UniProtKB/TrEMBL annotation:
The Transposase IS66 zinc-finger binding domain, residue ranges: 105-146
Protein name, per record: Transposase IS66
Pfam families per the UniProt record, alphabetical: DDE_Tnp_IS66, DDE_Tnp_IS66_C, LZ_Tnp_IS66, zf-IS66
Matches recorded under InterPro entries: IS66_C (IPR039552), Transposase-related (IPR052344), Transposase_IS66_central (IPR004291), Transposase_TnpC_homeodom (IPR024463), Znf_dom_IS66 (IPR024474)
Domain Transposase IS66 C-terminal: 449-486
Transmembrane segments: none
Species of the source: Novosphingobium barchaimii LL02
Domain Transposase IS66 central: 161-442
Domain of life: Bacteria
């Protein structure tokens, strides 16, 4: 009889293990399907959000609702679904007037019509990109006595004796690294405007621009490291392996200032591997707080005094997936509590660091303490192989780094700023597919750093690069900081021959 009980117990244990394993595999399949075909939204249903810790946070929830009712302004009636709203055309665009008058000058009664006003309607029009030629006419002077000739010097150029002017260089670079247009597509586009530019020439131009802009990227790196808190993330790209006709995996590391500072910057660093030596090389001398994910490559930075602040979005995502794919109520309740933390952050976004820290102490810390108590208690009820248990283990094992933001008003709650900075790379690699060489990747990182930093500071990347290409050849090293995106000021008027407007008129 005892042997039978032992067999039954062993079989029940094996059955439970296999069932847990099946659930884990189903979870992986569901997550892969969602990554490939599903929506990226991680919002919970209203009914799930209502399942909060009523006894633990009842008072907090009541206070929040009362405050929202007191501060909430009257809401305008919603617009009917599907009703289109036409946006006004920008007032800065030039207007070309076409006057239309009626042919009939007299009424049927015989009296002449009298003009009483006019009706104006506007349409948006465009012409394809139009090229023009800059002619540098330099006067030549001779001395009949000394038999010498002198001519006015040619202005210094980014590409010495090259055909492309700064505006064309800026166009090719921005189209490649911001609009994600491969060079063969640009070649076709420019040919429709009547100019043939071989893609080999454009590739050479982009490479030279990457070399010339490298000092600016180095200065940008110094500016980022001067902050006390920065973001970091990495993403894979394909690198062509010479002689093999295949590609291998390389990485681009992203370092970015937080959204809490007015002057923002981002740096892209291309490397051939994901080794931890690369962030240690870039962040040498940095001793502040690094906001990142739980990748082990960042662990070595703690030896040089860097404080780790992990991303709540990563912890939330693991719990959300456990709830979404395994219908875990435990994970769903944890996600709902994390949503309360983000509600506080929406209020704290525009505050000064000290006020933000105080608000977090009053509102966020009680929620964090309740969440830790809840996760610790629920984890004891779950098997180690359970998907929810793994999601909880991630949060509990990194709890100190996850709650680092509560101690410093300058530290953001998540690493979303860096993940958003990675998006241009994710879009671009679907178009250019792979990086041709290590050198090309490093130069692309330089150019993208300046383009994306210019956009972070509200600048038009074409206007910024055009001005940089004009001024950089004659700029002294000590004045280099003037051309950094957060210091750059656009000219009041960018002089471009308005051939398109004249042709339309």
């Amino acid at each position: 009889m005892q042997e039978l009980r032992d067999v039954i117990g062993r079989m029940q244990g094996e059955l439970k293990f296999k069932q847990t394993r099946i659930e884990a595999l189903n979870f992986e399949i569901a997550r892969l399907k969602r990554w490939r075909f599903g929506s990226s939204s991680e919002s919970l249903e209203t009914s799930t959000q209502a399942v909060l810790f009523d006894q633990i946070l009842a008072d907090t929830a009541l206070e929040d609702r009362a405050a929202q009712q007191d501060q909430k302004p009257p809401v305008a009636p919603p617009r009917a679904k599907g009703q289109a709203v036409r946006q006004a055309l920008p007032a800065s665009l030039p207007r070309i007037d076409h006057h239309h008058e009626i042919e009939q000058t007299h009424c049927e009664c015989g009296q002449p019509f009298k003009r009483i006003g006019q009706e104006v309607s506007e349409q948006l029009d465009c012409v394809p990109a139009q090229f023009f030629v800059l002619r540098h006419i330099r006067g030549k002077y001779a001395c009949t006595c000394c038999q010498t000739i002198q001519a006015a010097p040619m202005p210094a150029q980014i590409i010495d004796k090259g055909i492309p002017a700064p505006g064309l260089l800026a166009q090719v670079v921005v189209a490649k690294h911001d609009d994600h247009l491969p060079l063969y597509r640009q070649e076709e586009i420019y040919a429709r405007s009547g100019v043939h530019i071989p893609r080999s020439s454009m590739a050479q131009w982009i490479g030279i621009c990457g070399v010339r802009l490298a000092p600016l990227a180095d200065a940008l790196k110094g500016f980022i490291l001067s902050h006390g808190v920065i973001h970091a993330d990495e993403t894979p790209v394909s690198l062509l392996a010479p002689g093999r006709g295949k590609t291998k995996r390389a990485y681009v590391w992203v370092y970015r200032t937080t959204n809490f500072v007015a002057q923002r910057a981002v740096l892209f660093d291309f490397t051939a591997s994901r080794a931890g030596e690369h962030p240690r090389r870039v962040l040498r001398g940095f001793g502040g707080t690094l906001v990142s994910d739980d990748y082990s490559g960042y662990f070595g930075l703690q030896a040089q005094g860097v404080s780790a602040a992990l991303c709540w979005a990563h912890a939330r995502r693991k719990l959300f997936e456990a709830h979404e794919f395994n219908a875990s109520q435990i994970a769903g309740q944890a996600v709902a509590l994390i949503a309360k933390l983000y509600e506080v952050e929406r209020e704290a976004r525009e505050l000064e660091p000290q006020a933000r820290w105080l608000l977090r102490q009053q509102r966020s810390r009680p929620i964090v303490q309740a969440l830790h108590l809840w996760l610790t208690g629920q984890r004891q009820k779950l098997a180690n192989a359970d998907v929810t248990a793994k999601a909880i283990d991630y949060s509990l094992s990194n709890w100190r780094a996850l709650t680092r933001y509560l101690d410093d008003g300058d530290v953001p709650i998540d690493n979303n700023a860096a993940e958003n900075a990675v998006r241009p790379l994710c879009v671009g690699r679907k178009n250019w597919l792979f990086v041709g060489s290590q050198q090309a990747g490093e130069r692309a990182g330089v150019v993208m750093s300046l383009i994306e930093s210019a956009k972070l500071n509200g600048h038009d990347p074409w206007a910024y690069l055009k001005d940089v290409f004009e001024r950089l050849p004659t700029l002294k090293q000590r004045d280099l900081a003037q051309l950094l995106p957060h210091n750059w000021r656009p000219a009041t008027d960018i002089a471009v021959p308005n051939a398109a407007l004249a042709a339309a008129a």
